[in-house]
Amino acid sequence: MSLPAQPAPDSLAATGARAIAADRRGVRAWALWDWGSAAFNAVVTTFVFSTYLSSSYFIDPAIVAAAGDDDKNPALVAAKADNASLIGIALMIAGILVALLAPVLGQRSDGSGRRKLWLGINTGLVVLAMAAMFFVQGTPDYLVLGATLLAVGNVFFEFASVNYNAMLVQVSTRQTMGRVSGFGWGMGYVGGIVLLLVLLLGFIGLSSSPGPLGITTEGGLDIRLAVLASAVWFGVFAIPVLVRVPEIPASERRVKVGFFRSYAVLWGTLRGLWRGNRQVLLFLLSSAVFRDGLAGVFTFGAIIAAQVFGFSSTQVLYFAVAANVVAGISTIFAGRLDDRFGPKNVILVSLIGLVVAGLAVLVIGTAQLGFWIVGLVLCMFVGPVQSASRSFLARITPEGREGEIFGLYATTGRAVSFLAPGLFALFVALSGDTRLGILGIVLILLAGLVLMLPVKTAQVEIR
Description:
Strand content: under 5%
Helix content: over 70%
Number of strands: 0
CATH architecture: Up-down Bundle
Number of domains: 1
Distance between the termini: 43 Å
CATH superfamily: MFS general substrate transporter like domains
CATH class: Mainly Alpha
Largest sheet: none
Number of helices: 17
């Protein structure tokens, strides 16, 4: 994998924060946070810990014993659906908390000269939440604790991402944002591959027997130790960006108001966008919707694989490795297309692909081969839409307003972050079938696609 080359500094990249770290080492250090974040995205929310919470460990042993080898046992199916619904509710609550707090935290970091500091603090809190997951033993009594830690990790991961995404303008120019953003997302997927292989070979094993380290599966100890190792992984690879990329200078635009007054300042920014460029608000709305759909894909994809298609924890990890390979390659390639054809075109094509693949999950039966095919097709489009969304906003953000606009990006994103978990939980609860939860996620992605169609690329003007 080649690192995106940086062109000679132009008048934009040579001034202010955009020139702080626009070099190869800065790009590499910045992208390593994405590499490390796979420990949370791939291991915790998608393939390992969420699957662990949805497993038979957290179902009444009497129900499991009565069901035996019958995966279609009504009591067992209902218990699995209840657990999946509980996880959805926990993540819905997390989304509401982020929506309430992100406006203040994102806005107050703008111009404060503490972007990197808050990235470090919030990343550290995510690592601590992951480490605490070690104490979630595989019994029904620990399901609430597990769901709570999953929600807490999601909250602080979103806060950290606000500052991290704003740093894109510090390590790229307007002409290379697509490549650099795609390289970062691609590094995240490659990091996920490496970490998942480490967990397979060292902790979980390649079959139902203990892995090479001989760790027992009793009480989910192998899974819990794997998540603990992932916490260390994230902590280590988060260090380079905190060391290599300099802190942004403090600005006179720093907001110095109280907590509740910050919401009035936020309202002023929204009014300024309404008067200056309503296309930006439309993009923020559309991206908020489809990004929540993507979060649903990450969180509930492995649950569907396990409960509907009968994937074991090890089989889920096999799929995860293949999925990360496909997503990493497609995201890096899409970054080049982003710079050439524009991020909006990448976003639209990716959303169409996601909607089609999501609907296919409903009609492919229960054969694992069908999920392998459709799931990998879906993974081709997940990374590109995320990377292109980040570069789209970075391109239209005026210099010196990155923290404010990316904070608003996070605010709008999390303001609707209860939709996908909520609709997933609703469809599962109404039907009693975990598979139909994907329909709620598809509806969210489709709504985001429709809202994105009229968006035009234009420079932000805040009056």
